[in-house]
Structure formats: C-alpha cells, structure tokens
Design a protein that fits this description.
Oligomer: single chain
Shape: elongated
CATH topology of the largest domain: Molybdenum Cofactor Biosythetic Enzyme, Chain A
Number of strands: 25
CATH superfamily of the largest domain: MoaB/Mog-like domain
Number of domains: 4
Strand order of the largest sheet: 15-12-16-20-19-17
Largest sheet: 6 strands, mixed
CATH architecture of the largest domain: 3-Layer(aba) Sandwich
CATH class of the largest domain: Alpha Beta
Distance between the termini: 37 Å
Radius of gyration: 31 Å
Number of helices: 7
Length: 399
C-alpha cells in the first residue's frame, strides 16, 4: 500500500492559514452578571472608590482617639452612641469617631459601659484600625484587561468596581455540518451499513467550550447539490463552517472539492493522524474546515485546527493543557516516523510510588469509545524518537 508522504505539519497548515486570514474583532455590550466565560474587548476601570469614605478594618468599636491621649481610659461609665459605637469589619461609622478598638480588647458591660484589656495595644491615634477611602480600590483603577476571559474572580473584581456592563468580544458563530449517506440521527436505531451521528453532539459541545456560539445542521447526504446548498446557507449564517467527512479520496468525498472550488484552499491533508485527510480553506473571508469523519479523527481536527481559529476571534492565547510525565507501559505502534505525527490517546495509571504509567489507546485495536474516553493525549514527533515501553513521555491532560 502506498504510504502518504509530503503533507504539511499541523504547525505549517496553521501558519499558512493565519498568513492569509485574520479574525474580525467585533464587540457588544453585555451585563456583567451574564458574562461568565466571555472575553473583554476593552480595558475596564472601577467606577467607585472602596471604601466610599472609610471603614472599620476589623470587628470592634469606633471611638474618639482623643479619649486615649493620656492612655487607656476608664470606660465603665461610657454610653453606647455617645462615647462609642459598634463597627465591624467593613462597616462605615459616624464621622465623629476616628479610631477602632478591636473587639478582642473590649468587654461590653451590661449597662453599656466598656472595659478595656490591660494589655491592649496602642497608642490609639486618629485612623487606628481604620481602612482609608479607596484603600481597597480607587475610582479609575484598572480592574479588567482587554482579552481577559471572565471567570469567578474576574466577575467579582468587576462587581467590586461597581461595573454593571462591559464590552466583550462577540462569540463567533460556528456551524457544524455532518455529511454521509451512512449517518442516522441520534434516536434512530441504525440498520445495516448505518451509524449514529455522534460527531455533531461532540462538535457543538467542544465549540461552545472554545467560546463559540455553535449549532449543527441536520445530516446532509453525499450529494453535490445538497452539500453545496448546505455550505452556502452556513456561510450566510456563520463566521466559521466545519464540514464533517467527505475529505479523502472516496467516490463520494465532495466536501474538500467544494472548498477548493469556492474559495482559497490552504491545505488538503496534514502530517498528523488520526485525521490526515482534512482540508482547510477560506471562502468569502470565512474559515471553512473539513474534518475527517471517524470520531477520534474528528475530535483531533476540531482540537488542533478549529480551536485556534475560534481563539483568534476572541484574542485568546493558544490552549496550554496541564502535562504530566509518565512511563510508557507498552510500545506506541502508531508512530509515523518522519512521515506524520501520531496523535495518541493515553490512559494514565497511577503506580504504587505515585508515578504515572501511560497506556496508549488506539481506535484501531480498542473500541472507539475507549479512545474517546481516554483522558490523556500524546503526540509523537516527526523526528524519530523512542516510543518504546519504559520510555518517559509528557502526557497532556484532557480532563
């Protein structure tokens, strides 16, 4: 069988693509409370000081510092509301009081008087245990940078600055088009020669996790006119179009040819597997990606090719997954030497000494679901390298 050679690497494909395309930057105003996972399109500044005036820095009582000029006073006859008031952490208190005594140094007497601890720290002076105006944040302070993805802490920071709405990048619209005469929708019992369309659910979920507004079309049969109509509709509705299957050399593999006929084809085939038969192009200024049909190959194309395109719309850096070092439990048999990178799913096992063992999972000798559910990923290098049992590799953690 003739071996595939001469394909560009994943890095070369993406480099060529981004040399020919740049993401449009479109923003919209959104309520802060509804912006979890969104990306700031502009720097954000606090609209308030915190504290607004000043506040107690601890639980205690607010006092007149002048009463302590000669040392610790006898507070047994003091009256609440006249000589002192309660002021707990973060509390505002009347302007006539200018110092806070921590509650641990105070015994509140039944008649309203106060007894101070004999070892109370001092001297008590104006501003003692008082948080000044703007000590936590100043009005106009930068609290959110353009390009920041908003999570729990980022949303809290915006709330501290009393920011009720922010400018965020619009989510790119991505449409996934499943193709193939053999496919049936989930809920249909597959018959002979049929398979349930699993890629649509996977793709939509992945695209949403990437930050896109994603949807999947109904299954399109292997018919040139039907495929062209679906592609034209998707280009009118979406910012990114993903065609699934029909990218190799089969009799009914029309999808990659449509990209070449209607736009600029960047690549057809990549030196990485599973997923070598893929295509990438630009039609009317929009990315169109044709990922392979098998589920593991489809995931790979979405992960290494579509993900950075979605990230470009949102000004997000490349994804860097956590990695662990693991010892190969068995030889990787999928290595392509200097012909292609092998994208290998890995099952991690924790050894008795706390180290990791890496078990390669191939979709060829295991169930497809085994490969999809394996939680690790390892990519072999084009430069020949050891991939034998006992070798140490770095495994990306998928989940």
């Amino acid at each position: 069988m003739k071996k595939s050679t001469g394909y560009p690497t994943r890095a070369e494909v993406l480099a060529k693509f981004f040399d020919n395309w740049s993401a449009p930057k479109r923003s919209e105003l959104a309520a802060t409370a509804e912006c979890s996972g969104r990306v700031l399109a502009e720097d954000v500044f606090s609209s308030v000081d915190k504290p607004v005036v000043r506040a107690s820095s601890m639980d205690g009582i607010a006092v007149h510092s002048a009463d302590f000029a000669e040392g610790i006073p006898d507070g047994s006859a003091w009256k609440l509301g006249a000589d002192y008031v309660r002021a707990d952490t973060g509390d505002d208190f009347p302007d006539e009081y200018d110092a806070i005594i921590q509650i641990e140094d105070v015994t509140l007497l039944p008649d309203g008087g106060v007894q101070f601890a004999s070892d109370m720290e001092g001297p008590v002076a104006p501003g003692w245990n008082v948080t000044p105006r703007g000590a936590n944040i100043r009005k106009g302070a930068l609290i959110g940078r353009r390009g920041t993805k908003l999570g729990a802490c980022e949303l809290a920071a915006l709330s501290i600055g009393a920011v009720t709405s922010v400018s965020v990048f619009r989510k790119p619209k991505a449409v996934f088009i499943p193709t193939g005469n053999e496919l049936v929708a989930l809920g249909t019992v597959p018959g002979r020669g049929q398979a349930v369309d699993s890629n649509s659910l996977m793709a939509v979920q992945l695209l949403r996790e990437m930050g896109a507004e994603a949807s999947a079309y109904p299954i399109v049969r292997d018919d040139k006119a039907a495929l062209e109509a679906a592609l034209e509709r998707a280009l009118s509705e979406a910012d990114v179009v993903i065609l699934n299957a029909g990218t190799s050399k089969g009799e009914e593999d029309y999808c990659h040819a449509l990209i070449a006929a209607k736009g600029t084809q960047i690549a057809h085939g990549v030196a990485a597997a599973p997923g070598k038969p893929m295509a990438l192009g630009i039609i009317g200024g929009k990315p169109v990606i044709n990922v392979a049909g098998p589920p593991v190959a489809c995931f790979n194309g979405l992960d290494w090719c579509v993900r950075p395109i979605i990230s470009a719309f949102l000004e997000q850096p490349p994804l860097i997954r956590r990695k662990v070092r693991a010892k190969l439990a068995e030889k990787i048999s999928a290595g392509g030497g200097d012909r292609f990178e092998a994208i290998v799913r890995i099952e991690l096992e924790t050894a008795s000494d706390g180290s990791y063992l890496a078990h390669p999972v191939s979709h060829r000798n295991r169930h497809t679901t085994d490969a999809l559910l394996a939680g690790g990923l390892y990519v072999t290098k084009l430069i020949p390298e050891p991939n034998n049992a006992g070798d140490t590799i770095e495994v990306e953690i998928l989940r």
